[in-house]
Amino acid sequence: MNRKLKIDLLSLIASLVFMVVAYFIKDKIIEIIFWSLAFIIGGRSKAVEGVKKTIEEKSLNVEFLMILSALAAFFIGNYQEGAILIFIFALSGVLEEYTLNKSSVALESLMKLVPETAVKIENDKELIVNINELNIDDIVLVKVGQQVPADGIIIKGLTIIDESMITGEYIPVEKEVNSPVLSGTINQTSAIYVKITSSAQDSAMQKIIDFIQKAQKEQTKTEIGIQKFEKYYVYIVLIASLLMMIVPSIFDIWDFNTSFYKGIVLLVVASPCALVASVSPVMLSTMSRATKEGVLIKGANAIQNLSNVKTVFFDKTGTITIGYPDVISIDLYIDNKDQILEYIYNIEKHSNHPLAIAIVNHLDDEISNKNMAIETTEQKGRGMESVINNEKYFIGKTNIDDIRINKRQEKGYTTSEITINDVLVGVISFSDKIRENVNSTIKEIKNSNIETIMLTGDNLFNAESIAKKVGIDRVVANCLPEDKVKEIYQAKTNVIVAMIGDGINDGPSLTVADVGIAMGSGSDIALETAEIVLMHNNIEKIPKTIKLSKKAKRIYTQNIIFSITIIIFLIFMNVLGLIKLPLGVLFHEGSTILVILNGLRMLID
Which residue of the set 8, 151, 162, 315 is catalytic? Predict the structure, then answer.
């Protein structure tokens, strides 16, 4: 929490305390002092903000109008009205500041993933340099466990790279000479020499950061529309109040005291107190309700946009699927299957590859002899090899063209082949396990006339296989982060869109989308950039949250219409001379209380 937000929050609390004390004090002078303190302390931040904005923009604003309205109430002796008016407006300011403060956390988390230094090779010497000092065609050494400092191609070495933070895919990728590597990805097995092909400022990871920064600065159409309305509203109210104070007395319609009084009443009753309170309590109640159901909503804008969503984009790995491989079957085409499974288990337990770990977990309950004294060799990027009883066993990726392998791959499975002396004796099939309730979730979303699209770094064949199983409308495969962003930007030109993801690579997409939704087990970047977090990975909560947002929209729309109607009614009654300030205050504050209570319905309905 930044310093300004802390001060504003403390001021708001102090203002509330002074109002409570003033309400119970009987001595008139002391009561006025406490109402004044509540007014000054509560309105300080908004008054300063209003003055600064007026000077910078050379235009009056709602902050100015609210302060002026409250001062007018004080001027004619309605201290309570003025203090409450300021308190409600200050509360909305604190909530807005809190939302802006949270948005900066995402970039701070992302910056930690960008390596600060690189090992540059110059004149056959290793030099530690800042990544910003790297130039195109420089040669860098990337050791095991280190991050690639900038985008480039391998000129020497063979290794396996973890690209999950960029592509979202859990299986590391084999890289050899002339293979491209991306900044921020992690070298897992052997040192490599990389020739830089782009500067650090143009790297894949920096693009992710740039996407998030750009999206956070963008304003929604609603925000722009509200800002325009605010400017016109301020001038209309001020001009109308001044005209009412002066014009009727000039033409002897009312005397000056009556005209001035009606002008003050107009300034007070036309202040948008109920209008300001029309949305905030609804949104706060909706967020509280959602939190109880395991859904964290970070801001009112997310609720508003979610109620209008027409397209939902899904990441695949970690969102539609669990995010790690699961053994579907181990098919052996040889006798003594139990012995072969025992060999497979003891060979694979020597590897940290995700597929090997999946095999070991799958066989753990079936194998009795888990401690065979065998030696294994890992063929980088391919699999594990061992010689047992003078026979060569291999488990991993081969170049064997066999219908039994092809059939499994055609179903969208990843495969590992089992060979003895280079002869195929079995196939292990893997699939990224689909989350529970995904099918019913997709069906419920589609029943609300919302299009569903999968964006994934996986290949088209596997992606379409998963999409078909869960009922998703369309697939866009082989996506890098910027490809996902382009798809979302294109869709945003026509409809409001939501994006659901979990990985670092989803950060830009979650930020660019009108509504970003992250899985609770996702990366820090996904959790921070998303506006909605499914805290227990309960994807089935998405359609329920959409319905909740639609209900919130109905309620705050009711509030807005009601509050505007009351303002118009009070203005009309004031012109006819049928309302005095105390009654105007009663209607004005009563309407505010009613819209707040209507908003609190979200907690119980």
Answer: 315
